[in-house]
Task: structure prediction
Amino acid sequence: MKFYFCNPITLILAYSEFGSKIKSALFVGNYSRNMEYEHFKLQKKFARQYATKICERLQIQFQYIDFEQFLSLQTEPELLEANLASKNKFKNDPELIFQSSDVYTAFGKDRQIHYLLTRIKLQKLYQNGLKDYIKSNFYVFSESRIKNKKYKIKNLDRAKFTKIANEIGTGLDLEINSNFIKITSKKILLLLPPIAEKTDKTFYNNFMSKAQKIAIEKGLEILIKPHRNDTTNYNNESINIKYISIKNINYYPVELLFNLNCIKLVISEPSSSLIFADKTKLMVYVPRNRSNYKKYYLNQENFLRYTNIKYEFL
Result:
């Protein structure tokens, strides 16, 4: 079985379900429309590097293919990362591995009545992107178990993933980036901030101030792990927060950081990666302002509910 993917973490997800049936993993590069920008080139460079290392540790044959090669495949894939499903139309109903929180918006039952029309539009939008794969099996994480009569949704085993991720992640950070030595002997608050230019300024400032206050109260040092698309300069004097800096940490899979012994607390905005975090060490914040909440985080509600992740307004 061959697995086509573009996110290193979905490779571990796929392996947790199919194991040694996966004989080779094909990393699809340059599929983003933004690949002309240096930031996205770096993003794919590091993703390819991490994917190679993960394949080595799982003893799976690694292969890199360009997006153009993926679009012109002569044989249709049996196993595919869901993010790639909408990039090409395959007729053989491949097994789809989901890592994104979009699947909860698309298929989760919505019990809320506020912003109902917006919710319906979001659900139709996400379902429309997968309408060509109605006969495929969809593999997702859901502690409350997503059920949908129209689509075949299968729940992945979180314990299996965590065991494999811990085994793979041990020492991988230092092997790829020696700068991680900075945190190994410290007590760390891992901070996953919203992207400043894509969120409400008041919420962003409150979020950063809250993290700083909690770090001081608990005697922790802050390690900022920006989103891979975040180009914020955290050394800017206007960002008044003391933190540990690790070069190129943007591109390291945050899912492999959650279980490091030095990580004592995680503070984050809603993110699909949080399904892999220890909830006893997790604090999640969303904006109190209703219009900002609707604009930036409404599409995360079903994900947070189905994964039993609590959040607070800030």
